[in-house]
Specification:
Elements (H helix, E strand, L loop, with lengths): L2 H40 L35 H37 L1 H15 L3 H12 L3 H28 L2 H8 L4 H37 L11 H8 L8 H28 L8
């Protein structure tokens, strides 16, 4: 066999695992999120007690037929609280990411399209916010507003948006240099048409990858704040708050800690798999041939 067919076979072997892993990871990520969505939508139809119902006679009970995942230190059903925490935890992460994009998207677009002094001013303001450590700034906002899930969402969004704004600015500046964008401007297309029809379609695919990957980080930060007691407050079921409540009882009732910890792990894994899968699908560059 000559060297050319051998090189072709080796190239195909290098490409195949990447495509399969990307699509498989994307499918697995969406499957995990689909399971969480089913739990959030169909949890009320399951024969479970309310998440806030207290039964001190059944406190710290191990998994059983009555309580499939056991109970916590107040006798509340862990499975019921786990399902009730799905819309709270994931909803908070989605709301935080939406708040981040609502600031970063117009900020980055305006800076990239206006240029000149406007660009310099907006970026210097973003640099000032980025000069503060993200967690310190978020804690300052939460301390000013008071400990709550809403304050955590606002605090994380206020500290997180500058990096996304700078990234969006870079994406828009790169998209503006494409030949077909310049041709559209020379053809007399309006600025709004150029942005909507030619610039945004180039920015949105990489933005989708970024959002998917950062959703995992945002979820971890919000869960950490609730674990510290400055996020979701009792009796609201939330994964980070459940971990905080389970901490003193880990030796006696390990299920209290393992169940919400596994939920956070699977949710973060789902967002990471979706982000990696989207990146592999959107990246059409050939693998480097050694």
């Amino acid at each position: 066999m000559t060297d050319a067919p051998m090189a072709l076979i080796a190239t195909r072997r290098r490409r195949l695992p990447r495509n399969l892993v990307g699509r498989g990871g994307l499918a697995l990520g969406f499957a995990l999120l689909g399971c969480f969505a089913l739990l959030a939508l169909g949890g009320s139809f399951l024969p479970l007690p309310p998440p806030e119902r207290i039964d001190l006679l059944a406190r710290l009970a191990p998994p059983s037929a009555a309580h499939p995942l056991g109970t916590d230190h107040l006798g509340r059903d862990v499975l019921s609280r786990l399902i009730g925490a799905v819309p709270v935890s994931l909803g908070a992460a989605i709301a935080t990411m939406a708040a981040i994009l609502s600031i970063a998207l117009p900020w980055g677009l305006t800076a990239a399209l206006a240029g000149g002094k406007v660009d310099a001013l907006l970026m210097r303001l973003a640099d000032i916010v980025m000069a503060f450590p993200t967690l310190v700034l978020a804690l300052a906002v939460i301390g000013f507003m008071g400990a709550s899930l809403e304050a955590s969402i606002i605090g994380v969004a206020a500290a997180w948006w500058p990096s996304n704004a700078r990234l969006l600015r870079a994406l828009v500046l790169s998209a503006r240099q494409r030949d077909f964008v310049r041709a559209a401007r020379l053809a007399g297309a309006s600025r709004a048409r150029v942005i909507v029809r030619h610039v945004l379609p180039q920015v949105l695919p990489p933005l989708a990858v970024i959002v998917s990957l950062e959703m995992a980080s945002v979820l971890l930060v919000l869960s950490s704040l609730s674990f510290l007691g400055i996020g979701a407050q009792a009796p609201t079921p939330e994964w980070g708050a459940m971990l905080n409540e389970a901490r003193p009882f880990f030796a006696r009732a390990p299920h209290m800690l393992l169940v919400p910890g596994l939920a956070v792990t699977l949710a973060v894994l789902a967002f990471n798999l979706i982000g990696e899968g989207l990146r592999d699908l959107l990246d059409q560059r050939e693998a480097y041939r050694w």
